[in-house]
Amino acid sequence: MPAEAQQQISFEEPPDFFEVGSEEPGLRIYLRYDLFRALDEYAVRDTSRELAALLVGQVQEGGQGGNCIVVEDAIEIGVADEREGRFSPRVWQHARRVARTRYANKVIVGWYHTHPGTGLDLSQEEREVHKSFFPEAWQVMYVVDPVSRDRNFYRSQDNRLSGVRGFRIFGKEAAALKERESAPPPSQPAAPARAEEPLRERYLERSLEKIMRGQRRPPVRPVDLLIIGLLVANLLATLLRSAPVAKVDLSPVTGPLVKVAQQVSTISKRLEKLEKHLVDLQVLDEQINQPTPGGSATPEAGQAPAEGSKEIREHLVKEGDTLSLIAEKYYGPSGSSLVGALAKYNKLRGNEIFPGDTLKIPAKDRLP
Length: 368
What we know:
The protein is of the alpha/beta class and about 375 residues long.
């Protein structure tokens, strides 16, 4: 376990939560409801530039079902200008000092970044920042586009950042109870800001619904809708334009209109194909992730190849398998050195494996 995670006194998963999207295999991410609201309001504070923050909370590695991360608080950081580099080491060092002072019993679980109007795709610079300053496999990145109201977590997997299928928001009931307790008595007039609370709640509910819809089916990019709107507006403006009284050859006008109409039709068909393709991919993904009836598709041997043999057998990782159990199955009682050698032979990061992985089992004397 990393030194940061060892600072944790105890770890308990939040009992009250609701799922956004679907469960991510081998990782459970919990985001505190109050922090979700605060980060959402922080994102729309200034949509003319990117904003960033450090995420702190708790982490449990290698527990039942994989890693578990609880995001509880955030520390705002400044984004530097282009001359110094937007994310200089000085910025992160200062934020980490603040985190150690303000949240002594918490660990840095990742970072937060906004993409105003640019969607959720990560730039190469962001990938390099995450690799350099957040090297732990369990550290995550939370990206929000305040214009399109899209957001998602990213995790490091196979040496690259990829979006998760879903995450969990916890503490909503506790936050509502806290707000009711802090509300003024009926005899006192409510503060003007209280009138905005129902609107804010409805906005958050719609935002959460959009997250869930986005997890089920990726949306069409806003730029695609803008192009279609411009083409349709141009077509309507051309069609509604007053025709001259004199008889003229309209072919120079109708020709481009026909081309525009064909372009609009082509784009519409492509969007329909794209939507159908995305639905097919989702169905295929769900089928791939379902367990194979009748057990493993790869035959497994009860023991490793004999010493001196160049034969390499394969083991399909199942639910409940660990690297130490697999090593004991093929090589007999195994120490940590043999388990580490098997992990090194399969080029694993630590001893972490997931159901569906395939491990190579060589002869014992061929292990590094």
